Fold this sequence. Notes:
- With 272 residues, this protein is mainly beta.
- It has helices at residues 7-12, 40-48, 130-133, 139-146; strands at residues 35-37, 56-67, 70-81, 85-91, 98-104, 108-113, 118-123, 157-163, 179-185, 194-199, 202-209, 215-227, 230-239, 245-255.
- Strands 1-8-9-10-11-12-13-14-2-3-4-5-6-7 form a 14-stranded antiparallel β-sheet.
- The longest helix has 9 residues, at 40-48.
Amino acid sequence: MKVSLGLAAACIGLLFIISGCSAPSNRLALPDGAHEVDGAERMVETLKGVNAGLQTYKGIGKLALDTPTGPQKTRIAWVGAAPGKLRVEVLAQPGGQPFVSIASDGQWFYVIAHQEDRFIKKKATRSSLKQLIAIPVGPQDVFTLLTGRVPILPYATARLYAYPPTDDSATTEADTAPRLILTLTPENGRYLSQKIHLVGERVHQIEYFDRSGNLLYRTIVKHVQAVNGYLIPKELFFSDDNQASARIEVERCWTNVAVAPAVFQLKPPEPD
Length: 272
């Protein structure tokens, strides 16, 4: 059977570790003409309330990776449930049978490489997927992003800035829509936890930083689509400063479907 490349290739060696981090840069830098405006806390509450009624979903689409092992592409199917449970099946081609299963129930993170009969179970973290896709993002954040919401980390200070649009602004909104940046800073942190870029009230890009000010990863919401009254991403692009990237393309999505909790817990493969 010919197996699709993509995440499958990375999972055969199960959980390679990507090391190294980029040097801190001036993460407080703002676009020319940016100035602080009122409404930061109100914007946070608005973002938290986006698609609040969307609690479960199923989807199918494509995943494209660019990692130190080279470019990879595969088809995937997924199911998610609030508050952050996620399961992803990497599909073999042809045939569409699961080649690698990935799941998180919020407490544990599981991986099964079916052809290798290999099984991993470890504590779930906000960077669990780094060992598979080279980007330190967790299943909980991916679940939230696929609902059209923003994963909001605990913070002490919120600030909102407005700036004029530029010629190279990667948006399709009208030129008159305000460009905004929402920054969220932790209580004891010198650097930003998050920087959220918006066009009006639509999120375009999110950046996450560690305690040293290094970029952990950024997410760009490239396209959105309406599904059963919810505006959700059609394409999500993840990247870091180490030239790793991942793109999820949502081909079909079903919202508020019945999902059994056991879906998010994997067991070791049965011996032959």
